[in-house]
Write a structure and sequence with these properties.
Elements (H helix, E strand, L loop, with lengths): L1 E18 L2 E15 L2 E10 L13 H10 L13 H16 L16 E2 L2 E3 L4 H13 L4 E5 L5 H14 L6 E5 L6 H12 L5 E3 L7 H10 L4 E3 L9 H11 L3 E4 L6 H14 L3 E4 L6 H12 L23 E4 L2 E4 L3
């Protein structure tokens, strides 16, 4: 019979990180451990990567639900966790780790050490000077795709940063993505998209807040920059609802965060529906610890990826968990001893 338990863990940022929702200094997460009582020494570990203020399952009874899942781990079905995305993510992960052992979740050439994943360089929000320093470091590290968080500092300063980059690197030399995290109002969004368009951007993530399907559809139809839905996918768990969202908004891209959009199986549903509609996609992590990041990277490595992925590198925290992931420039690989 399967047994399970969970523990809460607080991750501490090396330095405060800025988003359009504010500044973060810590992030709580939950580790779930699953074992068979016949052989309790073999344990599968997963991460229920709750993102407070963003996850659809950020609710007062979260830990109560997590305990119920642990109590029923031998009989619970993943479909029962559709409304608890981060918990489903952790349970999927722990069960796969119990099956494969060690640090393996999704066996592949990547886990064998013969394949790497290209990732984008993420530039967090900060002062103009701080962001400029971060951009210069990423370029020196060899990244050919940068993603800039925008929407927290003065918009003209953000345009100036983009201008600085484009003066040095053309679109053929460096791909630029921006992520507004819903910072624009519907009334100002189009004017800002037009201002951003002169910098040959690959895409912009979530220009307006999620939930405004009509306004987002209008933007996707007329924006001079391809639009990628990110937060818009959170809480949309049923197959029919996913179809409806994609058909009504018709985005150019969707961004998949397994912890926020239904775990690995939920994310794969989004991929299938997107590809049927010629909508592009890529995967990003969502500030998980190295446990979750490792599992996401292994999962991504088995997908038909065609562009740099938005995977973190585990270097944001002072007290992150150990990792077998290795970053060299813009390449993420794995080394399992």
């Amino acid at each position: 019979m399967l047994k399970a338990s969970y523990t809460k863990y607080s991750l501490h940022f090396k330095e405060p990180v800025g988003t359009s929702r504010g500044v973060m200094r810590d992030k709580s997460t939950y580790f779930i451990r699953i074992w068979n009582d016949v052989n309790p020494a073999v344990i599968g570990v997963g991460e229920c990567a709750l993102f407070i203020g963003l996850s659809d399952d950020d609710r007062p009874d979260y830990e109560e639900q997590l305990q119920l899942v642990c109590d029923r781990i031998d009989s619970i079905q993943l479909q029962e966790l559709n409304a608890w995305s981060s918990i489903r993510f952790g349970v999927e992960m722990a069960k796969r780790n119990l099956l494969y052992g060690g640090e393996i979740y999704f066996p592949s050439p990547f886990t064998a050490g013969s394949q790497s994943i290209e990732i984008n360089g993420l530039i967090w929000m900060g002062s103009r000077e701080t962001m400029l320093e971060r951009i210069q470091q990423k370029l020196e590290d060899g990244f050919r795709c940068l993603k800039l968080k925008i929407g927290a500092i003065d918009f003209d300063a953000e345009l100036s940063l983009l201008s600085y980059i484009r003066q040095r690197f053309s679109r053929d030399e460096l791909e630029l993505r921006v992520d507004a995290n819903g910072a624009f109002t519907p009334s100002e969004a189009m004017a800002k998209l037009r201002a951003l368009a002169s910098f040959d951007l690959h895409s912009i993530e979530q220009p307006i807040r999620q939930g405004a399907w009509k306004e987002m559809a209008t933007l996707c139809q007329s924006s001079p920059i391809p639009i990628a839905l990110d937060e818009e996918l959170i809480g949309v768990n049923e197959w029919v609802k996913k179809q409806e969202l994609l058909e009504r908004i018709q985005p150019q891209y969707i961004i998949l965060k397994p912890a926020l959009c239904g775990g690995f199986e939920g994310a794969e549903e989004w991929i299938q529906l997107a590809e049927e509609r010629n909508i592009g996609w890529w995967v990003t992590s969502a500030l998980e610890s190295n446990v979750g990041l490792n599992a996401i990277a292994q999962w991504v490595s088995r997908l038909p990826i065609t562009m740099p992925q938005g995977l973190g590198t585990g270097q944001l925290y002072t007290n992150n968990t150990p990792t077998c992931l290795v970053q060299k420039g813009c390449k993420l690989s794995i080394k399992i001893v």
